[in-house]
Design goal:
Two copies of one chain form a homodimer. Chain A is α/β, with parallel strands linked by helices and 334 residues long. The first copy, chain A, contains 14 helices and seven strands.
């Protein structure tokens, strides 16, 4: 038995240290991690993937904590679920800002074998982070976690990427946002399956709820999206209020998550979202593979000479790209 | 003379309507726009590209307004500069949130022929927006604008992308940010050439200045970056205070922008940033070209069959990507 098979089998057996080692390999884009993911892929497709996103200052991390605790300790007779939390920080490309988040979380969740927490900070392009996150989520799915919560910091494209990754997307806001945030909300709202106003004991909660409901009624995009799965059942994103620091409203939120999962299964939307996610992943990997092979085949001298011509404004970047890729390089033996 | 040459020559002659038409072609990724950009590229490389980024609610748009007004109406004997403003909204992928921004700006800046304003909202992937922005900025550069201000909404990877695009990056904050924003700042600070605390009449400005200075001293990354251009001269990002709504502090900010441009020219960093930007653009275009040709050559039936195998967890997305791209397709005649 090779070490690689050991790793795969240990992860499938639910062992934590090999899982952590695998995630590091995946994050580093190591060939060993890639090979293990290939073997583990047949065991994926069972976890409920939940994306959690929203404005900075909305208390996302505390809320994710509370959701995880509620899923672990259900009070309504439902079975306890195993939960993996992936905290992605695409806004911190150079520094490891996610470390503090871990420490804060650990106090509530540490010691529970049904909880696994992983922080990821971007070390390069967003594309790299998004690919690593896909791999990490697949590994956690294969490792048997019932629910994988992917939490992201920031307000931008990363949210849309996470919505593509998730079965269910929670958008978290806090009361009393500035005018500037309205524009953001418009885009973010359209990816929300469940809207949460956290810090609901802060002033301005009623007007925030009203504003969000009004924007929902303006847009209705999730209704259209839901209708793609079935014309009989529509999912209307609920607007919920929580106070994560006091554990208030968490039961209703978890209930909405379960209802959304049931809705996805009943309408076929679960499979549809799966397919969209896997297609997007395939396209990304094809693009990377084509580029990697081109890079292996192009002469560095030619590339530098071309770049100097672009700098001297003798040839446009687009013209250079056509020249450098036409004709396509011969396939590599590797 | 063809219509395409008309368009190019009209843009070079400084005509506004053809410029607006070209930008629409570029935004829509139309072949006519691409061809015009190829011709215009030899006329680029003169404009000072300034990226403006920062937290929602920091008053970025008002500040960009004031900077443009000050560049148009210098009080210190400097020549008036022509200014193009590109307002990019990557957080609004589905709706046109940028329209309001235009209307607000128009009141101060409309009617001045030395000012040109363009709003761009993301209509798809961030990659598409980033590419369109590159093209729009090149067109404005070729059209002869002395300064191109690229303003972005949101806090995330888009900021880092804009820093790659710009000679000078302004990061705008407002006093009294929440704890959650600290993590963002750490990443954003490292791309800042000039830090601005706008709304400096709001409470908490002193502690925000102190926090930013402390983080700057912790990191020093811009110092290292500057040192790549010259070991003799270092650029230490100034921390400035402005009140855009009262036009306060704008003169000092514009002065810092001019000093940064002089620094870039003296140290060779201007050319270095140019080269990095053009190299990144070339790499993106090569990737797109390779992918487009692969898409033209692959059979849709094979693609669908492969996707179904992935969905059934019979083959991993990575294994499928290798199979679908190996051997590479024959070069197209197109």
């Amino acid at each position: 038995m090779t070490g690689k098979q050991d790793l795969v089998e240990s992860v499938l057996a639910g062992k934590r240290l090999p899982l952590a080692r695998l995630l590091t390999l995946v994050e580093n884009d190591a060939p060993e991690g890639r090979a293990a993911l290939d073997q583990l892929f047949t065991h994926t497709g069972r976890a409920h993937l939940i994306g959690v996103t929203g404005s900075p200052g909305s208390g996302k991390s505390s809320l994710v904590n509370q959701i995880a605790l509620a899923l672990r300790n259900p009070t309504d007779g439902k079975p306890a679920r195993s939960v993996a939390i992936v905290a992605v920080d695409p806004t911190s490309p150079f520094t490891g800002g996610a470390v503090l988040g871990d420490r804060v979380r650990m106090r509530d969740l540490a010691g529970d074998p049904g909880i696994f927490i992983r922080s990821m900070a971007s070390r390069g392009a967003l594309g790299g982070l998004s690919r690593a996150t896909t791999g990490v989520v697949q590994a956690l799915d294969a490792a048997g976690f019932d629910i994988v919560l992917v939490e992201t910091v920031g307000a931008g494209q990363s949210e849309v990427d996470i919505a593509r990754l998730a079965h269910t997307t929670l958008v978290i806001e806090a009361p009393g946002m500035g005018d500037d945030i309205q524009a953001i909300k418009a885009g973010i709202l359209e990816i929300a399956d469940i809207l949460v106003i956290n810090k609901a004991d802060h002033p301005g909660v009623d007007s925030t709820v009203r504003a969000l409901r009004a924007m929902l009624e303006l847009g209705h995009p999730t209704h259209h999206r839901a209708a793609a799965g079935s014309t009989a059942v529509l999912w209307i994103p609920p607007v919920l209020q929580t106070i994560a620091t006091k554990s208030e409203g968490i039961g209703e939120l978890v209930d909405a998550i379960y209802r959304h999962a049931a809705y996805l299964h009943e309408t076929g939307a679960w499979q549809l979202r799966d397919r969209i996610r896997l297609q997007s992943e395939l396209e990304q990997l094809v693009q990377l593979e084509l580029t990697a092979r081109w890079q292996d085949s192009v002469s560095p001298e030619l590339l530098q000479a071309t770049l100097s011509m672009i700098e001297a404004r003798q040839i446009s970047p687009y013209q250079a790209a056509i020249q450098l890729t036409h004709p396509l390089p011969e396939p590599h033996s590797g």
